[in-house]
Amino acid sequence: WSAEKVGYDCIVIGAGVQGSFTAYQLAKKKKATLLLEQFLLPHTRGSSHGQTRIIRKAYEEDFYTHMMEECYQLWAQLEREAGVKLYRQTGLLVMGPENSQDYQMMKNTLQRNQVPTVILKRDEFSSHIPNVILSDGDAAFVDTTAGVLYADRALRTVQFQKLGGVIKDGQKVTDIKPGPVVTVSTSGGVYRAKSVVITAGPWANRLLSAHSVVRINVCYWKEKQPGLYNVKRRFPCFLHTGSKEARDHIYGLPSNEYPGLIKICYHNGSETDPDKRDRQTDRSDIDILRRYITHCFPGLEPEPAVVESCLYTLTPDRHFVLDCHPTHSNIVIGAGFSGHGFKFGPLIGKLLCELSQGEVPSYDLSPFRIRRFQAKMKSAL
Ligand SMILES: Cc1cc2nc3c(=O)[nH]c(=O)nc-3n(C[C@H](O)[C@H](O)[C@H](O)COP(=O)(O)OP(=O)(O)OC[C@H]3O[C@@H](n4cnc5c(N)ncnc54)[C@H](O)[C@@H]3O)c2cc1C
Ligand SMILES: O=C(O)[C@@H]1CCCC=N1
């Protein structure tokens, strides 16, 4: 064990997308920053691994759509700084029961905020989107600015921007002692800082019992004819807000990373412990997807060709937690990203950095207050 005498301005705990962007924003502001990660990097045990994620402005709530305006700019800025391509525009096809609340709210939010949107009439649907069946009663529109983020590449890029911060991986944080100077103990050392940001993903549920962690079976499905749903043939990302087969959303990304395979997933899973996820063998989500694909995607084999796994950390209302600890204001928490946080990474990093430095955050963070679950806060700190 080494007790480092040198203090940091800020220690960030957890090098997933949110912690990595927080450390990046802090280092950009010339703050002495330490990013601690329990596993050796890169790893596939949390929520941020995998080749791709969807980026979109289509949300039911205005506040997410507003935040996405800046997110697109920040992603583009990182692409320029690092000279790498992180985003590919594909559009997002949104399908759902025409009169349902989810579908209408998403469509209205986009229109209210003047986001470029194309409404697809039923009789022209198959000429725009071949090889997909629009179910009876469903309607469709396209959020044209949406697309794919290259997730693994993005994480590598943000972690290895040479900004002067320190990353220590393979060091699990075992204790946090609050105070004007916070002391953080890990399996490899003891570190001190003026503030700490906790971005521990699924492991944050040890602090916030209102969260639940679910395992997502990330399924890839084989095209009957190679290329039918390929990104090069301009097949879009899609989101089905309420199919006959499922209570929760079903979503997909065009075939790209694995030749001939398209990623289609169910936006929920079975509850698990992040350290025991491999023991979770429930495949009821895959049964839902099989039925859905048989009905809506006639060009796919209705049996997954590849199944990977990833974790969601769900809050009861599916909104994030971005706040200071209720009793220790120099400890900041970014958690509960509920399966939709990747696209916000650069902005979450900026906001958590602002909170850690005692600055007024650049957005209204009231939807993300930790106190909305106060009755269920664990007293781990
Ligand atoms: C299958 C799947 C599909 C998704 N699709 C999309 C999408 O299309 N679009 C989108 O925007 N979002 C999507 N998401 C959501 C998005 O990926 C997550 O919201 C995001 O990755 C959460 O990042 P995080 O940094 O909070 O968590 P994580 O990536 O889990 O990072 C937390 C890190 O903290 C570390 N850690 C925990 N405890 C400790 C400790 N004690 N000491 C040291 N380190 C510790 C962990 O090892 C981990 O590396 C998807 C998620 C999944 C799983
Ligand atoms: O965040 C996203 O865009 C995806 C798709 C919808 C469900 C969750 N993640």
Q: How many runs of DSSP E, i.e. beta strands?
A: 21
Strand content: 25-35%
CATH class of the largest domain: Alpha Beta
The secondary-structure class comes to alpha/beta
- The 3D shape can be described as globular
Low-confidence stretches: none
Ligands present: flavin-adenine dinucleotide, ligand LYRWXNCF
Oligomer: single chain
Can you tell me the number of structural domains? 2
**Average pLDDT metric:** 94
Radius of gyration: 21 Å
Features:
single chain; 381 residues; alpha/beta; FAD/NAD(P)-binding domain; D-Amino Acid Oxidase, Chain A, domain 2; nine-stranded mixed beta sheet; 7 helices; globular; binds flavin-adenine dinucleotide; binds the ligand O=C(O)[C@@H]1CCCC=N1
Structure description:
With 381 residues, this protein is an alpha/beta fold. The protein has two domains: 2-48 and 152-209 and 317-376, 3-Layer(bba) Sandwich (FAD/NAD(P)-binding domain), CATH 3.50.50; 92-144 and 212-312, D-Amino Acid Oxidase, subunit A, domain 2 (D-Amino Acid Oxidase, Chain A, domain 2), CATH 3.30.9.10. Helix content is 23%, strand content 30%. It has helices at residues 17-28, 62-82, 101-112, 122-128, 151-159, 284-296, 345-356, and strands at residues 2-3, 8-13, 33-36, 52-55, 87-89, 92-97, 117-120, 138-143, 147-150, 166-168, 173-177, 182-186, 189-198, 212-223, 237-240, 250-253, 261-266, 270-271, 300-314, 321-324, 331-335. Strands 1, 2, 3, 10, 11, 12, 13, 20 and 21 form a nine-stranded mixed beta sheet that branches. Strands 6, 7, 8, 14, 15, 16, 17, 18 and 19 form a nine-stranded mixed beta sheet that branches. A three-stranded antiparallel beta sheet has the order 4-9-5. A hairpin with a 2-residue loop joins strand 12 and strand 13 (189-198). The chain starts with a strand and ends in a 25-residue tail after the last helix. 46% of the residues are buried. The structure holds flavin-adenine dinucleotide and the ligand O=C(O)[C@@H]1CCCC=N1. The site of flavin-adenine dinucleotide has 36 residues, from helix 1, strand 4, strand 14 and strand 19. It is an enzyme of class 1 (oxidoreductase). GO terms for molecular function: flavin adenine dinucleotide binding; L-pipecolate oxidase activity; sarcosine oxidase activity. Metabolizes sarcosine, L-pipecolic acid and L-proline.
